[in-house]
Amino acid sequence: MFTRILRNEIKEKFKSLSILILLISLFLFYYTQFIGDINRDGIKPIPPRADFSTDDSGEGYEYTPGVTLEDFIKFTYETMKSDYASGETLKIKGINRSYEKLNEEQRQFLASAIIEMENTIFEYSYQYEAFVEKIDKALGGNTVYNEESGFYHIIRNRTYNDDMKKYNSILEEDKITNAYARLFADYIGISIGFFTVFVTAFTLVKDKRYSVSELIYTTEISSYKYILGKYLGDILVTAFIVLLTAGHATWVFHHFSKITGDSISYLAFFKYSILWIFPTIMFVTSLSYVLQLIFNNGIVPIIVQFFYWRYSMTPLVSTEVQPLKYYIRFNRIVPYSELKPFIANINLNRILITVFSVGLLLLAIKLWDRKRGDINNGFSFRKKGVLQ
User: Fold this and answer.
1) Beta pairing, strands 88-93 & 96-101
2) Of the candidates 141, 167, 193, which is a domain's last residue?
3) Could you read off the pLDDT of 24-73 as tens digits, one per residue?
4) Which domain covers residue 78, as residue numbers?
């Protein structure tokens, strides 16, 4: 009977609207935030080829210098000369940056564009934007002459030495993917931290809506087997989606590794999914079970979870355990040595959240056991000794 409940729960969830809500929200967080960040910033710094862009001001990689129109103009001019001389231009394709050969027609276009730029005064930004758009298009697109790519390339070039030092530290200490898996766990944890409740909030109250209360409440199966079967079903469905997303992230970095030759850890995204995200799934599921049994509906868990989710949004700090924050916020790409001050509190937080989840699950079993004897009226606080 336990296996049947587990199997039916998984089957029902994959057919439900709630799983679609979770999939859409998870995809949006993953694609717009995680993939968006690494597509924008890249992973491995590209050495600058124009002299003006090597700025050893010592500001550090977190410093963002102001970029003026004059900076853009100088960047474009020096980069065009470098590209013409080398016969290559930098192509930006997702997280990968690499130099590609220019054909003769493209080199001749650059020669003409260099002369045109030397004889042009760009008084307004839209004039410059139209000029670089023409260059980007002539060179096949996805180049640093693209307006957005150019901005970030200037920023990264000006701090290249610091960026490369940071990258080498991440490569040595984290094999790249461990550092990015922590960013992955941050973004996915935010999504899972709230939208999981749409999968779990009606698990125990929907049976009554489908007029099967009598079967559930009078069956010989024990309360703990029934609740545990439902619980594992909800968790496995949600965990499967998270691991599927982690698999895609691993595939993205596999291609990066093939291009750069730098080693990665193929288990990193799965490891942080299990250690950082799974306790969050357990907690949301357990809390929603308790709330729906107390209030006899699935709306209250969603409302409560939303406010709790907002409360937990602030990043963790190294000086406090913050046991009531049920998902991990750590959205910095840093080597493991810079994560160390946070590790003890993060681990303790995950242990506490797991313990709280088990405690809430046991409470849900007890509530269900008390409730199953009352087929018609459901659960009520007014019943004396219901939590005894």
Assistant:
1) antiparallel
2) 167
3) 999 999 998 898 888 777 788 777 665 544 444 434 333 345 667 787 78
4) 51-167
